[in-house]
Design brief:
Largest sheet of chain B: 2 strands, antiparallel
Oligomer: heterotrimer
CATH class of chain C: Mainly Beta
Order of helices and strands of chain B: EHHHEEHE
Number of strands of chain C: 6
CATH architecture of chain C: Beta Barrel
Distance between the termini of chain C: 22 Å
Structural class of chain C: alpha/beta
Largest sheet of chain C: 6 strands, mixed
Chains: A alpha/beta, B alpha+beta, C alpha/beta
Distance between the termini of chain B: 15 Å
Radius of gyration of chain C: 15 Å
Strand order of the largest sheet of chain C: 2-4-3-6-1-5
Strand order of the largest sheet of chain B: 1-4
CATH topology of chain C: Barwin-like endoglucanases
Order of helices and strands of chain C: EHHEHEEEEHH
Shape of chain B: globular
Largest interface: A-C, 67 and 60 residues
Number of helices of chain C: 5
Strand content of chain C: 25-35%
Chain lengths: 453, 82, 146
């Protein structure tokens, strides 16, 4: 009998769409409705190709073992490491990240999340300049100018335009698309740019100069060169005038600004531009980073609530230290400082750069991931967890920092435990090995069904 | 009355972005959930919805051939055939 | 003749679908083991769709398929979606921000007869077995502006 589960949250990108409908028959997912291509693929393949039990690398090959043996081996690796790294936390629940922070503190290691290769520069710029933020609901109801700078929502967040920002009819924007202006700034003519009213095709690696030129005009200086970043000066003047004629603007930005040369300085100057638009021009502007994973905002918020800093936190001296460039994952790995690593809720095999992965090949790696990623070739202990949002519950934060609780759709198979339980078991054994007694009891973590008391 | 036009979908190009579903004036008029960006709740009153990650035509007889969905699809995954 | 291009890496919807389908699937391989080139540039280089090319930067080189870009025109810019193949070519140094340099790296393209490796083979060949201290130049990190 086919059962339709309504209001299912999609655990893929930062949009965290909450209107999904999943069709389940006999504990198997057979179809979805309202979810985009990627969300559907995640639900469709969630039950295929899963390992039946944890695996450990013995004599160069991964062999299945019992849960007890895998927990013991993982705890032994982490307890004996001098400088372990705990990475990922973006595709798992907030409750699991809390246990992860406790585990990092117990092992005196470093904790970092996938923001390291995504929006870490944005967070650093926000620490310098502040950030005018809003929720996606306010964008839907109030925004009449949407600027997409260095991001391609049609490819990375497919339902963003139709669910939150462009097409819905809002309280003050009752005509939907017709009451808004879309501006896209990107060096390629992407599929998003094809839908825009204005596409500014900057030359690659020169967005920083364009933002400064906008600021020059707002601060009553004139553009000094004829072309800036490949755009003629007249076009820039007209753009700033057009921005000033709108009532409520929002800047969505992505990897185009954070990953090119300039990194956090690009976001820094963009935030200053927003402040100046608010102060001098009267167009109310806010900004929002387009977070990539469904819970990377949650990972940042949880690590910050537990340790005081949003990412790249190092406990090696016994207290939390935050120094991006010294304690962030990429730097620790490519300088060769790490001697053990735990990866959960992330896919570094597909997103880490060359020198980082080549160092990971030399150290023991514990991998908590449901599918057969290419990182298996480098892993030493592999756990297969219950997927958050599909097989177990958890809380996640959307890209505008709104917390929503993910639901359970199907039952997991027998040896697939939730992330919270796997991490708690490893923490219990690490504490025993280090002779600290049972910390998990005083923190109130309840093992068994994965719910944190 | 026989219609002179037909909506065709090219599923291999569709990414399931729901632009066509939300921007369609008939969908928005008939179903308030769609007007505010969510997925349709009254499936017998909307022309198309996104099923299994791609667009699917449900009730062709409601379509008046305005072509707004075709204009707002950046992947050319939906078209009006005369 | 080797022309210099600017290489950018990023997301694409087919790459997202490929990741969720599993990194050992055909969807992932088709979506990520490719370099998307502007149609005019392809004509100038004398390449056809699905030719095998070697993309080389200062930090490494990788063999992928050449495809015509559907998000053109962007003459002078080539695009490889995120994945095991793109990350061979990027700069790991973070300039003290924690973020490596993944966009806008100077690169060259040449035609080749090598094989394009699958995801599981690529991670071992290009990363695990490779001798990274030997193949990349010495790090002159803080003033290395390209």
């Amino acid at each position: 009998m086919i059962e339709e589960k309504n209001n299912v949250l999609c655990p893929f990108c930062g949009c965290l769409c909450d209107d999904g409908v999943v069709m389940v028959e006999d504990n198997k997912i057979i179809g979805t409705r309202n979810l985009c291509r990627i969300g559907h693929k995640k639900f469709e393949t969630s039950q295929h190709g899963r390992a039946e039990s944890p695996r450990i690398r013995k004599n160069g090959k991964l062999v299945p073992v019992t849960l007890e043996e895998a927990f013991d081996k993982a705890a032994e690796i982490l307890a004996n490491a001098e400088r372990p790294l705990f990475y990922g936390w973006s595709a798992t629940s907030v409750e699991a990240t809390q246990v992860g922070c406790m585990l990092t503190e117990a092992c005196r290691g470093s904790i970092d999340c996938t923001a390291a290769i995504c929006h870490a520069p944005s967070l650093e710029a926000v620490q310098d300049q502040g950030a005018p933020l809003s929720t996606l609901g306010e964008v839907m109801n109030r925004a009449d100018l949407i600027i997409y700078w260095g991001c391609n929502p049609m490819h990375a967040h497919p339902r963003h335009m139709s669910r939150y920002s462009v097409y819905p009819r809002g309280f003050f924007r009752r005509r939907g698309r017709k009451s808004r202006t879309i501006m896209v700034i990107d060096p390629r003519q992407t599929n998003t740019a094809k839908l825009a009213d204005l596409h500014i095709q900057v030359s690659p690696a020169s967005d920083h100069m364009l933002v400064h030129t906008f600021r020059e005009i707002i601060n009553s200086y004139d553009v000094t060169h004829e072309t800036v970043s490949g755009i003629p000066a007249d076009a820039i003047r007209e753009t700033v005038e057009a921005i000033g004629q709108h009532q409520w603007a929002i800047l969505f930005f992505g990897m185009g600004l954070t990953q090119q040369m300039g990194k956090d300085m690009n976001i820094d100057v963009a935030i200053t531009l927003m402040h100046e638009l608010n102060k001098y021009i009267g167009t109310k502007t806010t900004l929002m980073p387009m977070r990539g994973h469904f819970n990377v905002a949650g990972a940042n918020i949880t690590i910050c609530a537990e340790t005081g800093h949003p990412f790249a936190v190092d406990f090696s001296r016994g207290y939390p230290r935050y120094l991006p460039g010294e304690t962030s994952a990429m730097d620790l790995l490519y300088r060769g400082e790490i001697d053990a690593m735990l990866n959960i809720g992330a896919n570094p095999g597909t997103s880490f750069s060359n020198r980082a992965l080549s160092h990971m090949a030399k150290i023991p790696l514990i991998n908590i991931e449901p599918h057969n990623q290419q990182l298996l070739q480098l892993s030493d202990v592999v756990f297969s967890p219950a997927m958050v949002g599909i097989e177990c519950e958890g809380t996640a934060y959307r890209m505008d920092n709104v917390p929503i609780k993910l639901r359970k759709v199907v039952e997991p198979s027998e040896n697939c435990l939730p992330d919270v339980v796997i991490l708690s078991e490893i923490l219990k054994r690490v504490n025993e090995l280090k002779g600290k007694g049972s910390w998990s009891e005083c923190w109130g973590v309840q093992e068994g069904n994965g719910e944190v008391v | 009355m026989e219609k002179l036009y037909n909506l065709v979908t090219r599923e291999e190009r569709c990414v399931g972005c729901s632009n066509c579903v939300v921007v369609c004036p008939v969908n928005a008029y008939n179903d308030p959930a769609v007007a505010s960006g969510k997925g349709p709740e009254q499936l017998d009153k909307v022309i198309m919805c996104v099923e299994n990650g791609v667009v699917k035509i449900l009730n062709m007889e409601l379509c008046n051939g305005c072509g707004t969905c075709v204009m707002e699809c950046p992947f050319d995954a939906i078209g009006l055939e005369v | 003749m080797e022309m210099e291009f600017i290489l950018s890496t990023g997301r694409s919807i087919w790459q997202g679908e490929g990741i969720e389908a599993g990194c050992d699937s055909d969807l992932y391989f088709d979506a990520c083991a490719r370099v998307e080139i502007d149609p005019e540039d392809m004509e100038m280089l004398g390449l056809k769709e699905n030719d095998i090319v070697k993309v080389k930067t200062k930090y490494g080189s990788v063999t992928v398929y050449a495809k015509e870009s559907k998000q053109s025109p962007h003459s002078g810019l080539i695009y490889i979606p995120y994945g095991t193949w793109a990350n061979v070519l990027v700069e790991s140094v973070t300039q003290s921000t924690g973020m490596p340099n993944l966009k806008h790296i100077p690169a060259t393209i040449e035609k080749t007869d090598d094989k394009v490796l699958g995801a599981h083979e690529a991670i071992k060949y290009y990363y695990a077995d490779g001798n990274w201290e030997g193949t990349t130049e010495n790090l002159k990190s803080y003033y290395n502006i390209h």
